[in-house]
Design brief:
By secondary structure, the chain is mostly helical. 74% of the residues lie in helices and 1% in strands. A two-stranded antiparallel sheet has the order 1-2. The radius of gyration is 30 Å and the shape is elongated.
Length: 627
């Protein structure tokens, strides 16, 4: 039947149908003209003959059987097929916006052209020269990122890298994009590998040892001392390579952070900053410099860290780039969390959220949301924190982003358990968190999950379960603290639960000596953490006082709890303040007054009123309140 109908067509109509067969998922008049040379009169004639259909949206389409028949006819003339597919690829590739335009948002929707864009990409992967293919991928990547199509990104870039004759600089760029796609999917080790390949292709192989990273650090510090502000590379090609190194470094530092590879972070950030200055890339300088500040803050050098963060924020504001604005908010937010600068974090978050949402930077935007949620949690705004975390949890789950998903579950759980340690919903959250911890996530986040489980079991009187979760958390945590300022509960939970079990002096199926050793090592880890991050000092002092009380050092315990109260007041952390009053008050004898000249009742009254104002259970730790 199709053969018979085809015989009745004019040569012009046959040629048009053959060429229209390369179009997928429908097409508009402009595409028909550009790809098949079919103008409106010719298309109207084909519509009249029911060979082409036109919808209410003015888009045309062919019946699939006719399209397949026409495609066979086109394939019979390889020269015509090649030319038609070339025109198809060039037309649809040109619809993609330049990267800078794509980040701004807006522009025409290409939702109806998904299949045609895929077809264009397939042809370019197979037949375009490397320069033409690279130009396409430069535009395709922002579109894929906006849609969250990171698996498809991986497939396309992997196929591109299998091509022969691709220049080294182009290979380096494609590996960097592959690394970023892996980061978005939570495949952090694969991401780091691609970033390392990028730097190696650009002549900057990464060290394999801590000593090697120390050499890199020394050389980058010396370079900054000898040439403050950097030296502009004189040649465009060298500036481009410096910019590509800088673009790789800030993302590789993030991968190292998640993988807890501490020796690599500062050398990479400084190298990236120096390379960005050589390329005169303000946006990349901001992204790397913010990491320098973050690492310095984790090392306890808060004055230097503050100056680096402020400089990076100013650079990000001048650059005006959505990725840079979001990234500096995430890293700056971590710094502000650590030092307790809640006002700055809250004030800058809306700008970053607007920039990220406009550019559809889903992963970065969710990180901004989660850092803001942690800020609210640390300052006693638990309802807001839980709502924000629940939104991020849903977004991470829908995008199959295990890092965001787990963070969302953990912040939700930590916030709700502060309000009610026996919250029955915690059972579901814990099961969800355990499933996520089996993926490529930071080990400190696994510790957070087990610390939350221990707190939940303790509140429910399941002492043996609480101890098992605590011991697992302690084994995973190791002797040294994490340098992530959003992990207070991971550090505080281990000594707190251990001390609670020691104080209750009930059979939890554990050797008391092992319990005391776990409490002591957990307290040492928490106090080191608090030296890096002042916001942890109230909790560290509370645990210190508790430990001293159990050692019959009542005077030292009272002084530690008093210091905890003063630190919590200074940092404007109301839950920590109430918790410190709770510990000091419940350990005072009747008629005894604290160093603050308050008696037991006055301390406990302040505890209750603050917890009630925060929407928390009056006794949030589910501990016996008798002296």
């Amino acid at each position: 039947m199709i053969d018979w109908s085809w015989q009745l067509l004019t040569d012009e109509e046959c040629r048009a149908l053959r060429r229209l067969s390369v179009l997928r998922g429908g097409f508009d008049l402009e595409a028909a003209a550009a790809v098949a040379g079919a103008g409106l009169p010719l298309l109207a004639g084909l519509v009249d003959q029911s060979l082409v259909a036109v919808g209410e949206d003015s888009r045309y389409d062919m019946h699939e059987l006719l399209r397949q028949y026409a495609a066979e006819r086109l394939a019979a003339d390889p020269a015509e097929e090649s030319e038609t597919r070339r025109r198809h690829a060039e037309y649809y590739a040109a619809l993609l916006r330049a990267p800078a335009e794509a980040l701004v948002g807006g522009g025409p929707s290409l939702d109806a052209e998904v299949e045609n864009l895929r077809g264009a990409t397939d042809w370019l992967l197979g037949y375009a020269d490397p320069a033409r293919l690279d130009a396409h991928l430069v535009r395709l990547w922002p579109w894929y990122r906006r849609r969250g199509w990171f698996r498809e990104t991986q497939a396309v870039l992997t196929a591109a890298l299998e091509r022969d004759g691709v220049p080294v600089g182009v290979q380096a760029y494609w590996h960097r994009l592959l690394g970023e796609a892996c980061m978005q999917l939570g495949e952090v080790r694969r991401a780091r590998q691609h970033f390392e390949w990028t730097l190696a292709l650009l002549g900057s192989s990464t060290p394999a040892s801590t000593l090697g990273w120390l050499d890199v650090l020394a050389s980058q510090v010396l370079q900054r001392r000898l040439r403050p502000g950097g030296v502009l590379e004189p040649r465009e090609e060298r500036r481009a390579r410096a910019g590509e190194r800088a673009a790789t470094c800030w993302q590789m530092v993030e991968a190292c952070w998640v993988l807890e590879d501490w020796p690599a972070r500062l050398p990479l950030a400084l190298f990236g900053l120096n390379q960005a200055e050589r390329a005169r890339r303000l946006d990349l300088a901001a992204r790397n410099q913010i990491f320098v500040g973050m690492v310095a803050g984790a090392a306890g050098v808060h004055g230097f860290a503050r100056r680096q963060v402020q400089a990076a924020i100013r650079a990000a504001d001048r650059a005006g780039d959505p990725v840079t604005i979001c990234w500096t908010q995430v890293m700056g937010g971590l710094h502000w969390l650590g030092v307790g600068d809640w006002a700055t974090l809250d004030a800058r978050a809306p700008t970053a959220l607007a920039a990220g949402a406009g550019a559809r930077l889903h992963h970065l935007t969710d990180q901004v949301v989660l850092i803001s949620a942690v800020c609210r949690y640390l300052t006693g705004r638990f309802g807001e924190a839980a709502a924000m975390a629940a939104d991020a949890r849903a977004a991470g789950r829908d995008r199959h982003d295990p890092v965001v998903h787990l963070w969302g579950v953990l912040v939700l759980m930590e916030s709700r358990l502060c309000m009610n340690p026996s919250d029955p919903a915690a059972t579901e959250w814990l099961e969800e968190a355990v499933q996520l911890t089996r993926q490529n996530v930071a080990s400190i986040d696994v510790v957070r999950a087990y610390a939350a489980a221990a707190r939940f079991h303790l509140a429910g009187g399941r002492l043996a379960d609480a101890w098992r979760a605590t011991r697992t958390a302690a084994d995973l945590a190791g002797p040294e603290p994490s340098f992530a300022p959003y992990t207070l509960e991971a550090h505080a939970g281990i000594p707190e639960i251990s001390l609670a079990l020691l104080e209750q002096d009930q059979d939890a199926g554990v050797d008391p000596a092992e319990l005391r050793a776990t409490a002591a090592s957990g307290l040492r880890r928490l106090r080191r953490y608090a030296r890096s991050f002042p916001m942890a000092r109230p909790r560290a002092l509370v645990c210190l006082g508790w430990s001293q009380w159990l050692q019959d050092r009542q005077g030292a315990a009272h002084r530690a709890w008093t210091r905890a109260i003063r630190e919590a007041e200074r940092l404007a952390m109301p839950w920590e303040l109430a918790n410190a009053h709770h510990e000091l008050g419940r350990h005072l004898a009747t008629g005894e007054r604290s160093p603050l000249d308050l008696d037991r009742t006055e301390h406990l009254d302040r505890t209750r009123s603050t917890f009630e104002a925060l929407g928390c259970r009056t006794d949030p730790t589910a501990r016996d309140t008798s002296a």
